[in-house]
């Protein structure tokens, strides 16, 4: 029986591109482009650092990728605008159905497990409307190994004190859901963008458009 529902945060519970509104305040008409590049480089940078074994916390990676995104899109980042945009990452919007669905899953242990460093993920969850529904927040910073390496999922499992088959892991990110599936968790891919499945021999157990499908696991 599944005892814990473990959620990735960025792109799964929280819309990372909700920062485009703040981007547009500082750089009119460039918000979409900056937001897109910011996220792409954020992923690229932590993957590279993981491969090179040169770990840095996710907040530093997020700041460095923001600086790249602004330069790449011809936006002059200042100390003030940089701080405002980093702060926006601590106040990302929840996807529409998240609060309602999590309130219906309160008979399960609800956990957030993110690559985000504690200084990013703790305030993000704590300021959100789901803070009262979440039992624990785990960060890959605790082991300084980013998902999707097996050590990251092992760390989460040990922190929860559960067997693999007692954990259902959810993510919207294909690389994350593949990593969790490979590790041996039950997995539900929250395919918000309607992406094509990866051509791997490792596949998620189930696939949903949003979190509503999780009610099947109650």
TrEMBL record:
Transmembrane segments: none annotated. The keyword Hydrolase applies. InterPro entries: 2-HAD, HAD-like_sf, HAD-SF_hydro_IA, HAD_sf, PGP-like_dom2, S-2-haloacid_dehalogenase. Pfam families: Hydrolase. Keywords: Hydrolase. It comes from the Bacteria. NCBIfam families: HAD-SF-IA-v1 (TIGR01549), HAD-SF-IA-v2 (TIGR01493), HAD_type_II (TIGR01428). PANTHER family: HALOACID DEHALOGENASE, TYPE II (AFU_ORTHOLOGUE AFUA_2G07750)-RELATED, HYDROLASE, HALOACID DELAHOGENASE-RELATED. Belongs to the HAD-like hydrolase superfamily. S-2-haloalkanoic acid dehalogenase family. This is 2-haloacid dehalogenase. It comes from Salimicrobium album. The lineage of its organism: Bacteria, Bacillati, Bacillota, Bacilli, Bacillales.
């Amino acid at each position: 029986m599944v005892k814990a529902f473990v959620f990735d945060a960025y792109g799964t519970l929280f819309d990372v591109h909700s920062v485009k509104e703040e981007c547009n305040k500082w750089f009119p008409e460039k918000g979409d482009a900056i937001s897109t590049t910011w996220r792409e480089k954020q992923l690229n940078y932590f993957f590279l650092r993981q491969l090179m074994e040169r770990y840095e916390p996710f907040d530093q990676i997020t700041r460095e990728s923001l600086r790249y995104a602004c330069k790449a899109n011809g936006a002059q980042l200042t100390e003030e605008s940089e701080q405002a945009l980093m702060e926006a990452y601590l106040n990302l919007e929840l996807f529409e159905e998240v609060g309602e669905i999590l309130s219906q899953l309160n008979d399960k242990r609800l956990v957030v497990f993110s690559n985000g460093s504690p200084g990013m993920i703790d305030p993000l969850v704590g300021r959100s409307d789901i803070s009262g529904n979440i039992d624990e927040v785990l960060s890959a910073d605790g082991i300084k190994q980013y998902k999707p390496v097996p050590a990251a999922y092992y760390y989460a499992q040990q922190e929860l004190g559960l067997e693999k088959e007692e954990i259902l892991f959810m993510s919207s990110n294909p690389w994350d859901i593949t990593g969790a599936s490979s590790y041996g968790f039950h997995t539900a891919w929250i395919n918000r963008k309607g992406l094509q499945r990866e051509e791997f021999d490792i596949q998620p157990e189930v696939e949903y458009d949003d979190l509503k499908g999780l009610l099947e696991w109650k």
